[in-house]
Amino acid sequence: MDSVDLSVLKTLHEWQATGQSLWLVTVVETFGSSPRPPGAMLALRGDGQAVGSVSGGCIEDDLVLRAKRGELPNDRCEVLTFGVTKEEARRFRLPCGGVIRVVVEPVQNRDWVAQLLQLVQAHRLVRRTLHFATRQVELDDAGRTDNISFDGSTLVTVHGPRWRMLIIGAGQSSAYLARMAQALDYEVHVCDPRAEMRATWDVPDTLLSGEMPDDAVIALQPDRATAIIALTHDPKLDDMALLEALKSPAFYVGALGSKANNEKRRERLALFDLTSQEIDRLHGPVGLRIGSRTPPEIAVSILAHLISIRNQPELSAGSIRNNKQRQTNRQEVCS
After folding, report:
1. Sign of torsion, CA 190 160 119 51?
2. Three-state DSSP string of 13-36
3. What is the pLDDT of residues 186-222, one digit of tens each?
4. By CB atoms within 10 Å of each CB, which of 25, 87, 250, 320 scores lowest?
5. What percent of the chain is modeled with pLDDT above 70?
């Protein structure tokens, strides 16, 4: 789950000690254009404090006002729809006549919130099932293809890291990339066999290992929700990872380096048991071409490319296509 939704649950847990009325608001359906997708959450307190977002604006204001007036239910779950009429769409500033439907859930049981946070912190992907009639919450393991669902009586949401990233190298660029990736719903694994590099790694909630890069790729068992980024700038390490990564279903495989260095890398990879189609999957230079030079800028360029792929159906995690035109749009990072 991204850092916004995780902060909602953490705040909800903290607020449970205040004794105030609390609600969890979840987007369950959208029609037309909408600022936030299904699954987006808002934690709301009886005095009007709110954390999170379900629309990015006026719907939050309306919910806060209802909470302060005592107009939200404490004894049942409720479904609210915003933007049905043109007047409502204008009032709530929904673009293009969009409609948003949310579930408003009173939160009185402390146990499931704490348990869910513990599971997410342990890098578990969790399915949360809310039964409207009883307001009972069940938690169990989810699969990476599971999604939010709502049938009018049961709401199922998925929490935890839905995507994985394996970073080869524990240097400065890797640290920036890891921190930003965590905010974008990635479970971050970092591999660096160099003890001196691991000794200075300081990014919390990442999984750091000292095994050889090819072994790390095999152990991870990459799937179509996995990105593998080689950032050591040492061919002996990066190429080891790429030899296994390019044969895997990972939706993105990238390597740091200039265009010239990556062409040499492709020539080296061709000497091994990789097909030309597998080598063509390599995003090298890694990231979008945005003129990045510093470690945080390089991290932004990589994540921008991942976002563009994840958000385009034809370039989704279910597709691993590549072509030369996309190669020209990537960032060139000089060695």
Report:
1. positive
2. HHHCCCCCCEEEEEEEEEECCCCC
3. 999 999 999 999 999 999 989 999 999 999 999 999 9
4. 87
5. 86
Structural tokens at position 97: 């006549």
CA distance 54 to 43: 10
Q: What's the CATH code, domain 163-327?
A: 3.40.50.720
Comparing CA positions, the residue from 36, 25, 29 lying closest to residue 95 is: 36
| Residue 42 contacts residue 25 (beta carbons within 8 Å) | yes
Phi-psi region of 222 (alpha: psi -120 to 50; beta: other; left: phi over 0): beta
Domain ranges of the chain: 3-159, 163-327
Please, are residues 194 and 169 in contact by the beta-carbon 8 Å criterion? no
- Token readout for 80 is 């609210």
Strand-pairing partners, residue 127, are 140, 158
Nearest to 72 by CA among 112, 118, 105, 39: 105
Asked if residues 295 and 176 have their Cβ atoms less than 8 Å apart, the reply is yes
For residue 226, CA distances in Å to 99, 102, 122 come to: 32, 30, 18
Output the 3-class SS for the chain. Answer: CCHHHHHHHHHHHHHCCCCCCEEEEEEEEEECCCCCCCCCEEEEECCCCEEECCCCCHHHHHHHHHHHHCCCCCCCCEEEEECCCHHHHHHCCCHHHCEEEEEEEECCCCHHHHHHHHHHHCCCCEEEEEECCCCEEEEEECCCCCCCEECCCEEEEEECCCEEEEEECCCHHHHHHHHHHHHCCEEEEEECCCHHHHCCCCCCCCEEECCCHHHHHHHHCCCCCEEEEECCCCHHHHHHHHHHHCCCCCCEEEECCCHHHHHHHHHHHCCCCCCHHHHHCEECCCCECCCCCCHHHHHHHHHHHHHHHHCCHHHCCCCCCCCHHHHCCECCCCC
